Amino acid sequence: MESSVARVRTPWYQVLYVQVLLAVAAGILIGAFFPEFGKSLKPLGDGFIKLVKMMIAPIIFCTVVHGIASMGDLKRLGRTGFKTLVYFEVVSTLALVIGLVVVNSLRPGEGFNLDVRSLDPGVSQSYLTKAHSTGKSDFFLNIIPSSFLGAFTSGDLLQVLLIAILTALAITLLPQRGQAVLHVVEEGGKLFFGVMGIVVKAAPIGAFGAMGYTVGGYGLASLNKLLALMMGFYLTSGIFVAVVLGFILRCSGISLFRYLAYIKDELLLVLGTSSSETALPGIMKKLEGLGCAKSTVGLVIPTGYSFNLDGTNIYMTMAAVFLAQATNTHLDLSHQITLLLVAMITSKGASGVTGAGFVTLAATLEAVPGIPLESLAILVGIDRFMSECRALTNFIGNGVATIAISRWEGEVSAKTLQENLGRSVLKTL
User: Fold this and answer.
1) pLDDT by residue (tens digit) across 280-325?
2) Are 360 and 130 in contact (CB under 8 A)?
3) What is the largest CA-CA distance in the chain?
């Protein structure tokens, strides 16, 4: 018994989430008191993100291929996929509506009286150019990679998802050879997860550099009146997680707070790097540890990174209406409904794009007449702070979606989820 206790106890300074938390605090202090030095730390954060993104495409490919091909029954695949897309659309739309309701109630942009002629149009135009490349028919054409291997170098997860689904379907249609190929894919996935495990150990360094640069480059004082929008966004995201996602988890049989405690390592990693991709392998393993089927985890999580971006949805509607209020642009009910419908489409193109939330916001504003596109420039300074909340909300939402779909499919019972959560808590004591 004593040896068992000794084996599970790890010195606090060796626990990854403690290291990340200390690194975030150190980065904030460095950025606040030594801003120039803090800005010079940017390569540390960028380097860590590049290391993680280097592994995301092969991990997603192996996970999705194994998850779909191991189902065997194509009817079950279609059923699970349909339920997943329905869930994504309902919850994502709810996030958009909540964002609209809150920003119209708080009205953080009222009284800003922004003169768009004083802004640099080149800033917003650069994001609008990117938005054009992800909108309309180009969005669907961009899902198709120029080559099979090109999907792994493009940085677009939708391209990886496409070739992974096609590969998985091909394996299911093969006779006995398909199992041999599936075994190779499974072993390849273990290899890539192993490499990611090595990379993640550098998370404290990446978090330190990212936070040092953010605070040093922008500073808390630079937020000014935009602080109201930031606080409103954080408040709205918190309400969405606590009420909507909390209700979904409660219906699934577990508590939101126990679930958040279970994934605290991954949450701090996302917070420190402002990217939900950095914690993708960890959350997949933890969801399987809760009892969710590996095939469902492999289908829902990667798909959610493109189609279930709750935090991005809240941000888009709140930011768009904020800019309208700041520029004294009147938006009646019909305009806001149009904004909602457009955002339902543009939010699906955020995957694999640098500054995804900003780019999709530009694409949304272009389709809603009246709001000056030049006004986007005022959000550039706080976008880094907003991106952390977007990433956290997106990350939590995808985990909750996986649990909900697993319960919907009858793969895991509420009792099993509670028991597995209980065991995980005991291990951390």
Assistant:
1) 888 888 998 898 888 888 888 887 877 788 888 898 889 888 888 8
2) no
3) 72
Cα 94 to Cα 19: distance, rounded to the nearest angstrom = 36
Alpha-carbon gap, residue 27 to 35, rounded angstroms: 10
Q: Are 37 and 216 within 8 A, CB to CB?
A: yes
Helix or strand run (H / E) with residue 42: helix 42-69
Burial class (CB in 10 A: 0-12, 13-18, 19+), 23: buried
CA distances from 182 to 59, 294, 326 (A): 14, 14, 55
C-alpha to C-alpha distance for 66 and 212, rounded to whole angstroms: 39
Tokens, residue 101:
């309701």
How confident is the model over 188-204, as a mean pLDDT?
A: 81
Of the two residues 195 and 350, the one the predictor is more confident about is 195
* Eight-state DSSP code of residue 351: T
Structure confidence at residue 1 (pLDDT)? 39
43-72 pLDDT, tens digit each: 887 787 778 778 777 877 887 787 777 665
Q: Does residue 136 carry a pLDDT above 70?
A: no
Tell me the whole-structure pTM to 2 decimals.
0.70
Task: Give the span between the Cα atoms of 48 and 222, in whole angstroms.
Answer: 27
Collect contacts of 29-37 with beta carbons under 8 A, ≥24 apart.
30/208, 30/212, 30/215, 30/216, 31/211, 31/212, 31/213, 31/214, 31/215, 31/216, 31/217, 31/219, 32/215, 32/216, 32/219, 32/220, 34/216, 35/215, 35/216, 35/217, 35/219, 36/216, 37/212, 37/216
Give the pLDDT band of residue 5 (cuts 50, 70, 90).
very low
d(Cα 396, Cα 386) in Å, to the nearest integer? Answer: 16
What is the Cα Rg of the chain in Å? 22
Alpha-carbon distance of 48 to 51, in angstroms, equals 5
**Tokens (6 digits) for 232:** 């409103």
Q: Which helix (H) or strand (E) holds 274?
A: none
Average pLDDT, the chain: 78
CATH class for the domain made up of 10-428: mainly alpha
Closest CA to 424 of 261, 182, 302: 261
